[in-house]
Amino acid sequence: MYFQLTRESYDRFVDNMKKAANYTVSCNIKGRRPDTKIWANFFEKSLREYLVQHLFAAMCLEAFIYDYAATNFSDTYVKKYIDKLDLVSKWVVVPKLVLGKEFPRSSRSFSFIRSIKRERDKLVHSKSRPQLSDKERERELAKYTFRPSKSDTKDTDLELNVPCQLVEILNTLKKMETKSDTKQDWWEILEEH
Fold this sequence. Notes:
By secondary structure, this protein is mainly alpha-helical. It is built from 8 helices and no strands. Helix 1 runs antiparallel to helix 2 and helix 2 packs across helix 3. The longest helix is centred in the N-terminal third of the chain and has 37 residues. The protein is elongated.
């Protein structure tokens, strides 16, 4: 369910970004400047969805690694020895315990785990800050923009596509299992997406 919620939030993110791009193009065709407040509204909605997808993605990673460990050990063992670890540590330790190999810390997948956790922490441990000027807000929102692809939304910037990051993380673990001659029965999730 967390993966699906992440995906739905990402789809809303892409939809808002496309609306902003279409609005900007429409204004350019008509020879007028886009209204900053309308344009910012599209991006602020997109930013909310960007943050929401990180929250659900972190929940997805947390639930998955817990279930992965509990399937291979027991709920009691996981609660007693693994559950107190932070999310990133779990993704290093659990594969080491189950497969005899650590999750590759130099991989792009590992950087995605860290990025998702970092964004989740920003949400959960939010701190107040001074209100941004219009220019500062535009610069901040520009970090979360991409050029919508003419093909499938899966082709958009991977740094913003959190569902694809999740799939890559899980595929990395799946490859580790393949090399260890271990096969779990939960890989159907990946084949669906």
